Structures
1.
Amino acid sequence: MSGETDALITRAVELLRAGQLVALPTETVYGLGADALNPAALARIFALKGRPADHPLIVHLPPDAALEDWAREVPASARALAAAFWPGPLTLILRRHARVPAAVSGGQDTLALRVPDHPLALALLRAFGSGIAAPSANRFGHVSPTTAAHVRAEFGDAVPLILDGGPCRVGLESTIVDLSRGVPVVLRPGAIGAADIARVTGVAPHAADADRHGPAPRASGLLARHYAPRTPAELVDGAALPGRLAQLKAQGLRVGVLALRRPLGDGIALDDEPAAYGQRLYAALRELDGGGFDRLLIETPPPGEAWRAVHDRLRRAVA
């Protein structure tokens, strides 16, 4: 890394050790980071985001961190998944070690952990030498940021330092797998799918909506309304989209459209390949949200496992 980047990492570590906040890039979205072992620093995250205190955070670890320092029970499946997918967009929920503040888990007995796959985030984590709690760097419930400019637009000067790592490569939040109850359960879909998890663990994970193993831990991004633009939005099937657009315009509304393959009206068209769509989704929603529209129409993406994470985010965005 360049001397300028090294200096920024040094400054970021100083701020984190002083209990301040630092925004950092990951492969998924930008995170609002604080020392995961400092309750006062964690309180700054909740206050700035307007996040409910019972909504848990995800702790980002350096690659050489010992899971036993963070979780009091580390099943073989957790070690296998970490070896296969870390650094990467996979979050594991395990039983929280007593040394980890309960505030990081929203008061729960569990803890969400991952190692991000971004060179700047990894450099910061290695230099800091401990865990960084980092939910998405946006106001609670709003569209997640995938560029440093999105973070600046969200918080202005309220964040002392924003590390600019360019646009996020994945663009959707990590897959969350709960391993705290004996069987793997996918609580939030992401780039790493159920088939990937089954291939590594030898066990097909349960879906959250088919969970038969008692109450699931609360986890990031699972509220009915989340990842949401401030402009009212609705999902519309492609065949019905032109008619719905005409109907709203006849009511005198200014309408922004997020379509597949080809733009429609005042809008943006995204690729119909799932990974490319997901990588651009939040930036497109933010652009439309800032366009002064009265309503947003989002063309429903195709069905299928490859689109599961996109459907999850859009369903919550329009709830």
2.
Amino acid sequence: MRVDSNLLNSLYTGRLQNLRQRAESSGISKSGSVEVLRARLIRQQVLAELDLSWEGIQSMSHKEMRDVLKVFGIKSSGSHKERRQRLWLHLSYDSRRMTIENLAEMNRDDLHEMCKKLELDLTGNRTVLMGRVAGVLTSQMNGWGRIKRSLRRNGLQTSPFQESEPEVKVEGETTPEIAIDEFHAVPAEALLEDASDSLLMGLDNQPSHVQGDILTIHARVGDLERMVGTILRGHGGSWGDSERDLLLRLADRRGWPIHEQFVKHRVLMVATNIAEVKGAEMASGGENNPLVEDTGAAIDRIRSKLSSLDSNGE
């Protein structure tokens, strides 16, 4: 791919006022934040020959998609679908406004359209659709909306196509090594499905900021299951007050939004359901803890799902 490096460099380092003047002189809308305006200018001046509509994005090859993302100065690694999602988000939204918390203000039709453009399942009610979009926003966090800091400060030092960009890591976050076999080898499919359903129960009745917090955690339900399994293996299969406290500390260290009482209650409830289904020994305080609901219904649902999985595998 050939680009005008001098023009691209000036767009990377240009301040808002300069970018607005450039846009006005070229007949391009000068509204929006500096990052939105920068993306618009790159699209219409640097990559003017490319079809960057949603349909055009769908037709790009894996390599071409990587090169286009590099021109925009954002994360370029990931699967083909992840790259398509990231590019469409970068061209369509302001990352400061398109947040998980703001999804709670969108109606079902808008969420349905977002799911369509993000290539997600279109079935389900508003809360389910919201959860799917939140999952993408979480997985794509820090990957779009703003060019890399080094480009803003120093501009284009080398060709953007020389080497692959490393994955974006959240500072201070570490992922513990997890053994291949889960505690008591309970199939993850059933646990994840039930945990997802349990997290979202009654969410429509909560304030928008609480909905946003739950949706953030819902997008990481797989991490929640692995954290529970890790704690069980490290504590001899016991699940009680100390294990729940440890879970909350680990979640807080990872930046999970668990400060609201409803959110903390729901996370502990789901985590305890997971622990019990995995065969944990419920330590003193586990069943009578006011933060934990009766798990019988959850276990019945999971057993039903396990039976369904076994039947489908025959």
3.
Amino acid sequence: MGGTLQSESLPPASPGVATGLAGKLRTTLEMIKFEHSVFALPFALVGAMLAVRGWPSWREVFWLIVAMVAARSAAMTFNRIADRKFDTLNPRTRLRALPAGRLTLRFAAGFTGLSCGLLALAAWELSPLAFKLSPLAIAILLLYSYTKRFTLLSHLVLGICDGLAPVAAWIALRNSVSRSALLLGAAVAFWVAGFDLIYACQDVEFDRRVGIHSVPQRFGVATALYGSVACHLAMLALLVWVVGMENLGWLAAAGLALMAVLLAYEHWIVRPSDLSRLSAAFFNVNGYISLLFFFTWGADILRH
């Protein structure tokens, strides 16, 4: 597989080559879809609010946001670096910044290193245990990029990367971990794994051709979508468990019910015979779910 990938020639560079620091940063942020940091950040903030049973200090909120944004930026940029040869061969991704030549590998690697450094700095500012565990967190975030080369569990590994957010927030503010934080992290892991199963359905033929491991590639789109439903049911069950453990009220329960409705809609608009609305399911619906979770659960915690 490696020899085949290396023997392919790169497509001609895009005319929009990034120049200057500002241009390169803008291209990098576009490449990693920086605005999608919204997916995991609300879960981290709710994890922090559960840890202190209220709103953390603004200093803590600042460093939590720095840590979460830096973690996602490092993971996404490294993923683009690791997958650049696959992206060159895939018609859907060949115009991404690295394979199209709009961004240099050197700059992307430097941005990844800077993001890892910011994550470690934020962890150091938050708590001793968070700082001690930051190398492990970075290793997990970067390892994901290679799991699709050898295991079908890559969807779950991606979920675990995002599931670290509420657990890390709890550790950062309490310098310890709790069962509630772990359950919330597991819920996020199943949520992300579920919509990654949906996302992977668009590359089935390409994945089979180049040997990338995924559930849709191995078992077909229909099975992957059933697996996604199972992941999201597990997510909802875990969140119900957290509601009970933390004695949350009707706002959290109502938010959970609305999240279930949005998940049902997500699975209704994506079917094995029709993947045309996959992008809407992946990006729009999950963004709404994340924000809904933050506002309903956050409000419930603050009112107690």
